[in-house]
Design goal:
The complex is a heterodimer. Chain A is α+β, with helices and mostly antiparallel strands. Chain A is built from 13 helices and 15 strands. In chain A, strand 7 and strand 8 form a beta hairpin. In chain A, helix 7 runs antiparallel to helix 9 and helix 10 crosses helix 12. Chain A starts with 5 loop residues before the first helix and ends in an 8-residue tail after the last strand. Chain B is of the alpha/beta class. In chain B, 43% of the residues lie in helices and 18% in strands. Classes of the chains: A alpha+beta, B alpha/beta.
Chain lengths: 457, 143
């Protein structure tokens, strides 16, 4: 760009220096002197900032070569060839990249998960702080593929296979495996990683997280065991508990039949209490079993059923009672909903049977079923003209075995029906409640979310 | 070989229930030969022997679901798989009103699902159920 002589250079140096950013001036001066030194190689290379005529900063790359000449062992700089290149854009990109990396680091170190990143070939070159904290190991013990030492030996083969698969195809990587924590304890973690693609669509890098899910896993195991226990209890309750109860009830009645004439009225009364007692217990056991099994969702998919069809079936089942009580049951158009048929059946059956049972003396029961869409929920209503109940019982009535009438009164039953309804509805994330005034009938409401989310297995 | 009586097999371990069944079968106007097996092992041995010999199959099996050393459903499976007596009528006796048990029984094919009640008169109805099932297979023998 320019040829220089000594004097010219001095002037130029000063001029150049003035335009250089004050932070870079000292380094520039130092390097220039070094380049001019005949004992050196005369090379001048430096990136520095110019403060241009406008406020904006520019980066300049200077490359130069000073030639020395001189006789008698006293060479002197006689000529320099310099090239200056504006590298402002390049520098800006470099800075932006560095800032971006710093931000990523900050984010990675803040996240509660273990965060990691690999090259396209699967060589891990980045771990966040949590990795070191969690494993208690330094980078040198984890880099590349050394992280495999942290995985439980039983889980490693499966995990490695999935990882290799993802490396090959670029598809989402996901696996569960036990990681060894700093204290030697293995804990279940969920590993996920996605590929970052370059402009050509090729995998450039992988970013992943490993999340400690040990507590969740333990809860899953506990839940499964609790369900199994409940199933065996249910079997015991239905058979083994009923047998002795039935023995007493049946043989009490046989005794009465065969020896009834040989004992006095009081003895028969006592016998009656004994028989009723065990029969009652048998009913309670049966209903308690029904309660434990209420709302049982043993499959992942929820069928869609027609509430109208189910209501019709329930009315068919109850036709005998409906006829004898001369009851009138009407309904509005009812929707299709996402629920197991047996559950909706039990709901309608319990509510309508109750409406019939708690009818007013001498008044023909009139029952109406309706449904409306409220806030993404289907809200069903079963209204009756029966005896009603006062507000202090509106919540109690859903308790297990909670009854508002004495045993032996004309309103029989174990008081489990509404508890079963509540348990069932709660399994569907719905609500059930009653609106009622003593002497003026009751309306029972229950809600079912409009769209049920399928349960993941 | 002709027989003059109806052969009924009862699989039940609860003695009071066995007595009840004996008593209500005795009330029926039929000559009945009643065999009682008290657990799963006994009945399965009996059924396996039947497979190998030429004795006629029983006319009816009254099967309790809750028996020791096996289960009523396992016995039912076995009966239905049998080449000789696979179509044998079975009346299931149970304390369970669980819909799951009922479904399973329906799948395997039973003539009746009798839930043993705590009421004496209801229990006695087992007698008419037995008569009905036997008449369906044409076994009405006067003694």
């Amino acid at each position: 760009m320019f040829g220089l002589g000594d004097a010219v250079m001095t002037v130029s140096l000063g001029e150049i220096s003035a335009t250089i950013h004050e932070d870079d001036r000292e380094e520039f001066a130092r390097r220039t002197v070094a380049a001019l030194d005949p004992s050196g190689d005369g090379l001048l290379a430096m990136d520095f900032r110019l403060v241009g005529p406008t406020i904006e900063l520019r980066w300049v790359r200077l490359r130069g070569q000073v030639s020395f000449e001189g006789a008698e062992g006293e060479p002197r700089p006689i000529r320099g060839v310099l090239a200056a290149l504006d590298i402002t854009t390049e520098k800006a990109a470099e800075v932006a990249l560095r800032v971006s990396e710093q931000r990523f680091r900050q984010l990675a170190d803040t996240m509660p998960q273990l965060v990691w990143s690999t090259r396209a070939d699967g060589y891990t070159d980045l771990y966040n702080e949590k990795w070191y904290e969690y494993t208690g190991l330094p980078y040198e013990a984890l880099e590349g593929v050394r992280w495999t030492a942290v995985i439980h030996p039983e889980d490693l083969p499966g995990l490695a296979e999935r990882w290799q698969q993802s490396l090959r195809t670029g598809e989402l990587y996901e696996a569960e495996a036990r990681y060894r924590r700093y204290d030697g304890v293995y804990r279940w973690c969920l590993v996920r990683a996605t590929a970052i693609l370059d402009e050509g669509g090729r995998v450039e890098r992988w970013f992943g997280t490993s999340t400690d899910i040990h507590e969740r896993k333990r809860l899953e195991v506990d839940l499964r065991r609790a369900n199994r226990d409940l199933e065996s209890f249910a079997f015991t309750a239905s058979h083994d508990l009923q047998e002795p109860l039935r023995n007493v009830a049946i043989y009490g009645q046989l005794f009465k039949k065969r020896y009834g004439t040989e004992v006095d009225a009081l003895a028969l009364e006592y016998l009656g209490y004994m028989i009723e007692g065990v029969q009652r217990m048998s009913e309670l056991v049966r209903d308690l079993l029904a309660y434990t099994q209420a709302g049982d969702l043993d499959s992942d998919t929820l069928p869609v059923v027609s509430a109208e069809n189910v209501l019709e079936k329930v009315l068919q089942d109850l036709r005998l009672v409906l006829t004898t009580s001369r009851a009138v049951v009407t309904h509005d158009p009812l929707p299709m909903i996402s629920m197991k048929e047996v559950h909706l059946h039990a709901l309608f059956q319990n509510l309508i049977a109750n409406a019939l049972k708690y009818a007013k003396d001498g008044l023909r029961p009139v029952i109406h079923v309706s449904a409306s869409l409220e806030d993404a929920h289907w809200q069903f209503a079963v209204r009756d003209n029966g005896i009603g109940m006062s507000s202090e019982y509106h919540e109690k009535v859903f308790g297990i075995f909670k009854r508002l009438h004495k045993k032996g009164s004309k309103y029989s039953g174990t008081g489990i029906g509404l508890a079963i309804c509540q348990k069932t509805i709660e399994r569907y994330d719905g609500r059930i409640w009653v609106d009622s005034t003593l002497g003026e009938g009751s309306t029972f409401y229950f809600t079912v979310p409009e769209q049920q989310v399928a349960i993941d297995s | 070989m002709t027989r003059s009586s109806v052969h009924i097999v009862l699989v039940e371990d609860n003695a009071p229930d066995v007595m009840m069944v004996r008593s209500l079968l005795a009330d029926l106007d039929l000559a009945i030969r009643l065999d009682v097996h008290g657990d799963g092992e006994e009945i399965l041995t009996y059924l396996k022997d039947l497979e190998d010999n030429t004795e006629p199959c029983p006319d009816l099996v009254l099967l309790d679901l809750n028996i020791p050393k096996s289960s009523g459903t396992e016995v039912l499976h076995w009966i239905r798989k049998s080449t000789r007596c696979g179509k044998l009528p079975v009346v299931l006796l149970t304390s369970s009103q669980s819909p799951k048990d009922r479904e399973l029984a329906e799948q395997l094919g039973v003539s009746h699902y009798f839930c043993k009640p705590t009421d004496l008169d209801e229990y006695m109805k087992l007698g008419s159920i037995v008569t009905e099932v036997l008449s369906q297979i044409g076994r009405r023998v006067e003694d």
